[in-house]
UniProtKB/TrEMBL annotation:
It comes from Nymphaea colorata (pocket water lily). GO terms for molecular function: nucleic acid binding; nucleotide binding. This is HRDC domain-containing protein. Residues 1-31 form the HRDC domain. InterPro entries: HRDC-like_sf, HRDC_dom, HRDC_dom_sf.
Length: 31
């Protein structure tokens, strides 16, 4: 997940808003 770019995250967020929160959570763990 850490490899995902902002564009990819934004695209996924548009498809599934709930995914944005999950990815943000995962990014926080990777950082």
């Amino acid at each position: 997940y850490a490899i995902c770019s902002d564009q990819t995250i934004q695209r996924l967020a548009k498809v599934r808003p709930s995914t944005k929160a999950r990815l943000a959570n995962i990014e926080g763990i990777n950082q």
